[in-house]
Structure formats: structure tokens, C-alpha cells
Model the fold of this input.
Amino acid sequence: VLGVRVPEVRKLAAQLHNTEQAAAFMQQLPHRYYDENNLHACLIEKIPSYEACVQALDQFLPFVDNWATCDMMHPRVFRKHPEKLPAQALRWI
Done:
């Protein structure tokens, strides 16, 4: 744990979103620090494509080992596809 507050992690995610640096970071799994996982989660939230978001979660979820990182992820794109979520959630479980 580095101790970066969640609002600051969200600000950093907003700055990095859609950059090559963010894409490279998201491919570097597993992350070493809790705060890196939180940044990864915040970057996933910003993915605008449902399929790309699910793919990113498929890669990331095996490395999520705490409730805080899990609970902070609220991908916006899921609001547009509520009918797909129950089956997807069962697959992840």
C-alpha cells in the first residue's frame, strides 16, 4: 500500500484514460501495490465499449484480492447493458 487517497486515484485515472501509458499499465499484471490495483479499476470504469470493458475485467479480476478494489469499480458502460449483466456476473463468479 502506498496510501494514495481514492479521489486522487480517480483524478489520475481521468488524466491517464485513453493514453498509451494507461494501456501499457493495464497490461502489466499483476500489480505490486494495492494503489496500482485501484488505479487499474478506475481506468476500467472509463472504458466506453461493453465488450472491451468485459475483456479488461476478465484480465484484471483474477488479481483483485480485496473488497475495496472490487467495490470501487462501477463501469459506466454497464448502465447501458443491464440485460447482459446477470449472465456475465455468473460467469465471473
Observations:
- Residues 19 and 25 are 10 Å apart (CA to CA).
- The helical segments are 6-16, 20-27, 34-45, 50-60, 67-72, 85-92.
- The chain has a mean pLDDT of 94.
